[in-house]
């Protein structure tokens, strides 16, 4: 990840990395992300995600720290810094291309003409849905849909339509941003909507703070899940008709056993 060759007009291209930092545990921080952060002179990010990074990766860097709703200002400032010739990294939790900062960075870069001198590189990472699925077992082995319940940027009518059609299609559903202090009713409404299509016995994985301090992993039922126990730090995995609870694990069969059958059990020759 070295500085690029001169771009259009002969101007030297400065890198701006959109760095995916994964679920939060330093062991899951991608090596490419570490490399980008080591090379960056400036690091911009939401305070919560910056605090999850090893302190030594930020040592000696200029830090641009913002809170929630500061995404546009943060990405704009990072692009301006890179345009001025300083290698810059924008930190994004999980995977930057999944509900992260990658799209906004590209939109701003092309809208304001930064691409003449800024070379954007998205560094992939482990998204929250993969982290939650791994802790639950294997619930995403078949087709699934990811839906955010945050209506801050998407009209609620569209969100509700997506939930309904994903349920009618019998997708496993990964629900991001299920509930917050300012959005206390949406999850309850979605759970009722799902019960008009799915069985109340449908298993629901409830993962909070995946791979972070305070982690909890539970399996509930669609008909009895209490919305009050869910917050913004939680990811929900709603099973399909074929999803099963096997011991303490949630599994959606891919269909191998149905097609090929089971082999001999332990100790059988």
Characteristic terms for this protein:
269 residues; 5-stranded mixed β-sheet; 9 helices; 13 strands; 29% helix; 23% strand
Question: Would you write up a description of this structure?
Answer:
- The protein is of the alpha/beta class and 269 residues long.
- 29% of the residues lie in helices and 23% in strands.
- It contains nine helices and 13 strands.
- The protein has a five-stranded parallel sheet, with helices on both faces. Strands 7-8-11-9-10 form a five-stranded mixed sheet, with helices on both faces.
- Helix 4 packs across helix 5 (102-112).
- The longest helix has 13 residues, at 71-83.
- The radius of gyration is 21 Å and the shape is globular.
- The N and C termini lie far apart (52 Å).
- The model is unreliable at 3-9 (pLDDT under 50).
> What share of residues are in beta strands?
15-25%
The shape is globular
Total helical segments: 9
Gyration radius over CA? 21 Å
Distance between termini? Answer: 52 Å
Tell me about the largest β-sheet. 5 strands, parallel
Number of strands: 13
- Helical residue percent? 25-40%
> Going across the major beta sheet, what is the strand order?
3-2-4-1-5
Helix and strand element order: EHEHHEHEHEHEEHEHEEEEEH
Briefly note the structural class of the backbone.
alpha/beta
Low-pLDDT parts are 3-9
Please tell me the overall pLDDT. Answer: 93
List the helices and strands and how they pair.
Layout: E1 14-20, H1 31-39, E2 42-46, H2 47-51, H3 55-58, E3 62-66, H4 71-83, E4 88-92, H5 102-112, E5 118-123, H6 128-136, E6 137-138, E7 144-148, H7 156-168, E8 172-176, H8 186-195, E9 203-208, E10 216-221, E11 234-238, E12 244-246, E13 249-251, H9 256-260
Parallel strand pairs: 1-4, 1-5, 2-3, 2-4, 6-13, 7-8
Antiparallel strand pairs: 8-11, 9-10, 9-11, 12-13
Helix pairs in contact: 4-5
